[in-house]
Design brief:
The complex is a heterodimer.
Chain A: H1 7-29, H2 31-34, H3 68-104, H4 106-121, H5 124-134, H6 139-149, H7 152-165, H8 169-176, H9 181-217, H10 229-236, H11 245-278
Chain B: E1 2-4, H1 20-23, E2 30-34, H2 50-59, E3 64-66, E4 72-74, E5 77-82, E6 88-93, H3 107-118, E7 149-153, E8 156-160, H4 168-172, H5 182-188, E9 202-208, E10 212-217, E11 231-235, H6 240-248, E12 254-255, H7 262-267, E13 275-278, E14 282-288, H8 298-307, H9 310-316, E15 321-323, H10 346-355, E16 363-369, H11 372-387, E17 391-397, H12 399-406, E18 414-420, H13 427-434, H14 450-461, H15 465-482, E19 485-491, E20 493-497, E21 501-502, E22 518-519
The chains are: A mainly alpha, B alpha+beta.
């Protein structure tokens, strides 16, 4: 969040990011129609010897004779699903903690922010590995684990935003008219914090995609044979010398998705700040 | 036979964490080995897998042993006499053998080691091998008097058997029969596995769990000039890929060859003098728990055999092996396996499943050792079975816990495992893996067929070698028809050594041995 893109570039970045994210989403949603083969089955006679890109297989095949392109497309579905679900959990926890702490202040604020510090003091990936090892591997586990370890950034930023918002005149006015704290938070503070939440959501989605890839690389993601990008990279390690494409393509897709969400997030941030200055 | 990893290629998910300790680990004349998993145990009464035996062999000695060609030779014994009725064996021990605590090895230590294996409290998977000794049946505690093991004097021990046992000498060559010092077992109790004291060529110097084991030369070993190494360093948490990288950079002396590198290694001239290869008597299989539905139905078990494409599995390991048709490997001497095997026939599998009441298949969990090779194998099986409607969830865990799990009743429905002969006899497959008395140790499929038990028992008693083989062949045919296993393949073992390694050969009956290995200065 530190970079402050120039005013003109904010708009471009947003559109570039949005286009990348859109492409990613489109690929994920239309995987069943775009994928040339079944991602779970051996479609080539290349067991033990991956086929290079080209021929009938645009991005080659893996050591089990499966089509890499099809697996990447279906892997995008998993990544997108995790990105959306885990980010929803992340943002929900973060916003709830941030708004309550920021609006109520006092000991509630102290308590919630120290709790945030505690979670933040663990390296996210290590905490995620520990949590993932506790539960049966599966999509639900990934959602919850990523949600539980990555809400802190959102909570802090939203709290900061709310600290400013609660002193605004319209909040004071509503309060003097007798609005309850719950109503104030939901109807008056939250809607005005939405732009910040949106930016944080986009930015934390890129973290989520990365964390998901990391977990599945470590074997803690969705169980085999469901394709996931991280798992594809770890599976390809053995073959990196004779079949580097097995590692390169999922790597490129991860970079693409993460860059897309980052650009979108920073673009929105720049846009919002410009809007704020002009307001 | 002992359990061995199912796949040849072993690799893992998590890379190793190179620690500072390994930096100061001994180099020089230390032979450097690595594997992904820790050694399950070093207690000769408890270990019954290739990883445990590799190192138990270094620490302990037995009355008899195998030479490099797999022939029985004397080790702690100098000579032995067999009575005319072949039921009494008298061994004379060498006088110069000492435990590494300094005390001479005596006949009572041989007796102690075997009684300890027979004691139910030890929970030894090897107890059944010594039940044929007179008086062994009633052994219920470590104090039991097994009348058939007599200590005649400090260097003479006599075994009396209830019935003729043509395999008795082979059984005495297993680590289960090693000389064990009672005072050290009393001192360490359960912890003896971590503080093993034997009379073998090496001494355990350090065992940092999950990191490494260090063995040093036992300079008092009773064979002159052995061992020739200063020691052996065995790293843990090094998967096959990492091991290969370490090998290529000169950090390992012996390594497996990952499937991705194998074709190149076979092709390139410079690797040829460094390759070691042996066809051991070994079978890789998928075990089905016959007491857990749906595998309790023989039609389901047969269907699984028809559904798995074994040729494809072999291609995944660069054809390092041959397709298995039954339990006993084809290179078993003097034995012809009567089983023609199950062809790859998914249609037939579907029909059998429908007959068994699973027209749309079922779901189950396949337990495998957590290495990339086993996972790759499991995924190939998963694809094949999906074609006939059987949905497999793969559960991958480390070698030690994996063995514990498959030896637990009613826990594991479906698992991937291998078995390697302890001695060149078909009973070492058929009896140990299929007789109902071995449920809980190595009959991990909980297979129980009274007729097979009867045939195996009859074979155990048969004095005539031809009649015995016939009984075993019949038992194998019946058990194969019951299909407690999906027969996969008989692997061929390959290792590659550093150019400084001399006199290292793979053993036909045991994991590699390092007694005579040495290293040229480089």
């Amino acid at each position: 969040m530190t970079p402050r893109p120039g005013q003109g570039r904010g708009r471009h970045l947003t559109w570039v990011g949005a286009a990348m994210v859109g492409l990613f989403g489109l690929a994920a949603l239309s995987a069943p129609w775009l994928a040339p083969y079944d991602p779970l089955r051996a479609v080539a006679e290349s067991i033990g010897e991956p086929l290079p890109p080209g021929g009938g297989f645009l991005l080659g095949t893996d050591e089990l004779g499966r089509d890499v392109l099809s697996r990447l497309l279906y892997g995008a579905r998993i990544s997108l699903l995790v990105a959306l679900a885990a980010t929803t959990i992340t943002v929900s926890i973060g916003v709830a903690v941030g708004v309550v702490a920021g609006y109520l202040g006092g000991w509630v604020d102290t308590l919630l922010m120290r709790a945030t510090d505690v979670v933040l003091s663990f390296p996210a990936l290590l905490l995620a590995i520990a949590l993932a090892a506790l539960f049966e591997p599966g999509l639900m586990t990934i959602f919850v684990v990523i949600g539980l370890v990555s809400w802190t950034g959102v909570a802090r930023t939203v709290r900061g935003e709310v600290l400013g918002l609660r002193e605004r005149d319209y909040v004071l006015a509503a309060r003097s008219l007798g609005a309850t704290p719950g109503r104030l938070m939901i109807s008056h503070v939250l809607p005005n914090a939405l732009p910040t939440i949106l930016v944080m959501g986009a930015l934390s989605t890129s973290n989520t995609v990365l964390l998901d890839a990391g977990l599945s690389y470590l074997g803690l993601g969705v169980p085999v044979p469901t394709p996931s990008w991280g798992r594809m990279i770890s599976d390809s390690q053995t073959y990196y010398r004779i079949a580097p494409w097995l590692m390169v393509f999922p790597g490129v897709t991860i970079v693409f998705a993460v860059t897309g969400f980052n650009l979108l997030g920073y673009g929105l941030l720049a846009w919002r700040e410009r809007g704020a200055r002009h307001a | 036979m002992r359990a061995c990893g199912a796949a040849i290629g072993l690799m893992l998910v998590l890379a190793a964490c190179p620690s500072a300790d390994e930096g100061r680990a001994p180099a020089g004349d230390y032979l450097r080995l690595a594997d992904q998993d820790d050694v399950p145990t070093l207690d000769p009464a408890r270990g019954y897998d290739t990883a445990s035996w590799e190192f138990e062999d270094m620490l302990f000695s037995t009355l008899v042993d195998y030479d490099e060609a797999g022939q029985l030779i004397a080790e702690l014994a100098t000579e032995w006499e067999v009575s005319a009725d072949q039921r009494t064996y008298t061994f004379h021990l060498r006088a110069d053998a000492r435990f590494t605590n300094g005390r001479p090895v005596e006949a009572a230590d041989i007796r102690f080691g075997i009684v300890r294996v027979l004691d139910p409290a030890t929970r030894s998977p090897g107890a059944e091998f010594f039940r044929g000794i007179a008086g062994a049946d009633g052994c219920q505690s470590s104090a039991c008097a097994v009348s058939g093991i007599e200590v005649l004097d400090a260097h003479t021990v006599r075994f009396r058997l209830r019935e003729i046992d043509p395999l008795f000498l082979h059984k005495l060559a297993m680590p289960f029969a090693a000389a064990v010092p009672p005072e050290e077992v009393a001192r360490w109790g359960e912890d003896f596995a971590r503080h093993p004291v034997g009379s073998g060529p090496f001494i355990l110097k350090e065992w940092a769990a999950g990191r490494h084991l260090i063995f040093v030369r036992n300079s008092n070993y009773f064979v002159a000039g052995v061992p020739r190494l200063a020691g052996v360093l065995r790293l843990v948490a090094v998967n096959d890929d990492l091991a290969w990288l370490k090998y290529e950079s000169g950090e390992l002396d012996v390594s497996n060859i990952p499937p991705a590198e194998f074709p190149r290694v076979r092709r390139e001239e410079r690797y040829q003098p460094l390759l070691r290869r042996i066809t051991t008597m070994r079978t890789s299989y998928l075990g089905m728990n016959c007491e857990m539905a749906p595998f309790s139905d023989v039609r389901v078990r047969r269907a699984m055999n028809f559904a798995v494409n074994k040729e494809k599995l072999l291609r995944l390991i660069n054809n390092r092996g041959v397709v298995a048709k039954a339990f006993v490997p084809p290179n078993m001497p003097d034995y012809y396996s009567p089983v023609s095997g199950y062809a790859f026939d998914p249609d037939r599998a579907r029909r059998l499943l429908a007959d068994a009441g699973y027209p749309s298949g079922f779901s189950t969990t396949l337990w495998v050792r957590s290495d990339e090779g086993a996972l790759r194998l499991a995924q190939s099986v998963q694809q094949d079975l999906a074609d006939v409607g059987v949905r497999i969830r793969i559960k991958a865990i480390a070698w030690g816990p994996f063995l514990e799990a498959v030896r637990t009743a009613d826990l594991v429905p479906f698992f991937s495992l291998g078995w390697e002969a302890d001695f060149p006899d078909p009973s070492n497959f058929l009896e140990v893996l299929l007789h109902s008395k071995h449920i809980g140790t190595n009959n991990n499929t909980n297979y129980r067929n009274p007729e097979v038990d009867r045939l195996l028992d009859a074979a155990g008693r048969a004095g005539d070698a031809t009649a015995r083989i016939q009984l075993l062949e019949e038992a194998e045919a019946r058990a194969a028809a019951d299909a407690p296993w999906v027969f996969l393949y008989h692997p061929v073992t390959y290792r590659i050594v550093h150019s400084r390694v001399r006199d290292f050969e793979l053993h036909p009956l045991r994991p590699p041995r390092y007694n005579r290995t040495w290293l040229t200065p480089q």
